[in-house]
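User: Let's play a game. I give you a shape written as tokens, and you guess the letters that built it. Ready? Here's round one.
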């Protein structure tokens, strides 16, 4: 019993799924209730994000199809205005007309960064760990990070917002990621779906 009890308070670092494992293209499943298992998973997500020096993580990035994302900008450029956030079933309900460009990276796309254009402000609805509903208007860098994470829950990568020429330039980087050839400081889930990689040479086109 004591072993069981201690295992419920300990959190673990989960391996990160990378391009182009199928779960990263899946649309997340809504969370119906919050129980101990969900709370434990959320703790594991926060620990995984921090362990990888990330500022955001979506559940499908650790192989779980539920609509959960975590964000923490508190250590990013000394930004202590934002406490760590857990977003369950998040939905962006409005976007600003004004957009800007900024560089983004992703734990699922190690060593690949690119400039991404996004609206500078959003309205977002989500539930927290106590299943309390929040409606918030968010601007600045946090708005960008939330859009990136909520994109993941819809099966979208940041490079889907990049124009075709830049995406073509990134092809070799993406290919190396899909072949598990890019080293990281955090554990990765090995890609077992390599046959689907476009242009990998593993399968001939008919
Ligand atoms: Zn990402």
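Assistant: Ready! My guess for every position:
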């Amino acid at each position: 019993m004591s072993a069981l009890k201690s295992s419920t308070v300990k959190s673990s670092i989960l391996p990160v799924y990378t391009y182009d494992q199928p779960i990263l293209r899946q649309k997340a499943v809504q969370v119906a209730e919050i129980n101990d298992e969900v709370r434990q998973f959320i703790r594991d997500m926060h620990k995984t994000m921090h362990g990888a020096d990330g500022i955001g993580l979506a559940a499908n990035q650790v192989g779980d199809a539920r609509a959960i994302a975590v964000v923490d900008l508190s250590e990013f450029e000394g930004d202590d205005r934002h406490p760590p956030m857990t977003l369950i079933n998040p939905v962006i309900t409005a976007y600003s007309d004004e957009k800007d460009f900024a560089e983004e990276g992703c734990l699922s796309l190690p060593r690949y960064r690119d400039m991404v254009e996004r609206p500078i402000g959003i309205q977002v609805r989500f539930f927290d760990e106590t299943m309390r509903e929040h409606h918030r208007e968010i601007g600045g860098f946090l708005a960008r990070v939330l859009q990136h994470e909520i994109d993941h829950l819809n099966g979208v990568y940041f490079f889907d917002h990049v124009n075709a020429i830049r995406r073509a330039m990134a092809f070799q980087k993406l290919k190396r990621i899909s072949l598990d050839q890019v080293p990281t400081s955090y554990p990765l889930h090995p890609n077992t779906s390599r046959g689907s990689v476009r242009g990998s040479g593993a399968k001939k086109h008919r």
